[in-house]
Design goal:
Length: 422
């Protein structure tokens, strides 16, 4: 009898899970809107697809497999960005050309010898579809991949079709735009660090505002034939949890939706190699600031809380990272929380942490720390050498605050022309 009851309970759980996975989410992403239309935008075209594991429907089916199975879609090529189309490539590792074993479709690497599709890679396609979940920050490399794909398609007369997805940071905009001497693969466009647009909106802005100028930012701007398949049901103030969509990590250190919120709050500081652990290599990526030399974590925490940063709270924490900064060592510092995401200024957190470090541990400020060598990475991620030069004089956020926000309102005014959602 007990076994029968256990079996019946298991069946009920399975039925509940199936019902949940097949229930309609509050938001339909671009791939689901495309499918609802019968893939009409793709009919009669040879299709290439840029995607990764985050390109899924609400039942966790890959866009690769959806398009491959559609009887009226001719999927002839896949393009592998960082981590590859199936997510089986480690962060930073080069991606090689290969055949996708599930579909038999050739995968061209656009994170290897070339980060921009070559004419040979595009020769057999009429249109390239892009479907990757973004995290809302300029330094996340997939929007740079999008821009290079758009540029290559413009040069070769190919259409680009963007399947839209939510911006996890909603409409937040923070940071200065990239300056001429700081263009790179993590700062390719003249946009703020947090830009407040969906990928489809961003693609339209890049196309219409003449921002497709290549990785160095010096090429003559080009414009591609662009189609955006918009979402249904999304708005800029909607938390990702309210969308009803599953979160699939777009890269290894963005495992949960919360990781997107913390990434812009600590990732810039993380460019100083060996300076502090920001949680990468521990169970809380981007959610903490720890170091061996922080010998008074309670006071460190108290000073940060005394700043009364809107929507942000800190607590002491002690960790032993598994890899990366501080691997195998006892570190201490703070874990931080967004207690009111709407009020929080995400990017400011790391600057205030460095400000308190300068007060408590003046021998460990990042620009004087011999381990924190990667000043160029800091410059290109912030998009301006001025941020480092001005902030490094006194380590006071007030010295760069106006500069950090100088482009926000002008950008909002420009980008509003391309809003697809309220």
């Amino acid at each position: 009898m007990k076994k029968i009851l256990l079996f019946a309970y298991s069946c009920l759980i399975a039925v509940a899970c199936c019902a949940q996975s097949n229930s309609a989410p509050a938001v339909m992403t671009g791939i689901e809107v495309l499918r609802e239309s019968g893939f009409k935008q793709l009919e009669g075209k040879r299709i290439g697809l840029v995607t990764n594991p985050s390109g899924i429907d609400h039942n966790l089916v890959s866009t690769i497999d959806i398009l491959h199975a559609a009887p009226n879609v001719n999927l002839v090529a896949l393009y592998g960005p960082e981590h590859g189309v199936r997510g089986d490539i480690h962060a930073g590792a080069k991606v090689d050309d290969y055949i996708d074993p599930a579909t038999g479709v050739k995968v061209y690497s656009i994170y290897g010898a070339s980060r921009k599709p070559t004419p040979e890679m595009l020769a057999d396609v009429d249109a390239v579809v892009y479907d990757i979940q973004d995290n809302g920050s300029r330094s996340f490399t997939f929007i740079s991949t999008l821009g290079l794909v758009m540029q290559a398609c413009a040069e070769q007369g190919k259409e680009v079709i963007v399947l839209d997805r939510p911006n996890p940071l909603g409409g937040k905009v923070e940071g200065n735009i990239v300056e001429e001497d700081c263009y790179s693969f993590v700062s390719m466009f003249e946009i703020p660090y947090i830009y407040g647009l969906s990928v489809g909106e961003l693609a339209t802005l890049l196309n219409e505002e003449g921002l497709l100028k290549g990785e160095k930012g010096k090429d003559a701007p080009v414009k591609c034939k662009l189609t955006v398949v918009p979402m249904k049901g999304w708005n800029r103030s909607m938390p990702f949890g309210a969308t009803g969509l599953p979160w699939v990590l777009p890269s290894p250190h963005i495992p949960q939706i919360e990781s997107c919120y913390y990434y812009p709050a600590s990732g810039i500081l993380g460019e100083f190699q060996g300076f502090m652990s920001i949680g990468v290599g521990y169970t809380l990526p981007f959610q903490l600031f720890c170091a061996e030399w922080i010998d008074k974590p309670e006071e460190f925490c108290a000073r940060l809380n005394a700043l009364n940063l809107p929507g942000v709270g800190f607590r002491p924490i002690y960790i032993n990272p598994f890899y990366a900064v501080g691997a195998g060592k006892q570190l201490q510092g703070v874990q931080f929380y967004f207690t009111d995401f709407a009020k929080a200024h995400l990017t400011e957190v790391q600057f205030y942490v460095m400000q308190v470090v300068a007060e408590m541990y003046p021998d460990h400020t990042p620009f004087e720390n011999p381990q924190a060598k990667n000043f160029r990475s800091f410059d290109i991620v912030t998009g301006s050498k001025h941020i480092r030069e001005a902030f490094g004089k006194r380590y006071r956020f007030e010295d760069i605050k106006d500069y950090w926000y100088k482009d926000v309102e002008p950008f909002k005014k420009t980008s509003a022309k391309y809003y697809l959602y309220e």
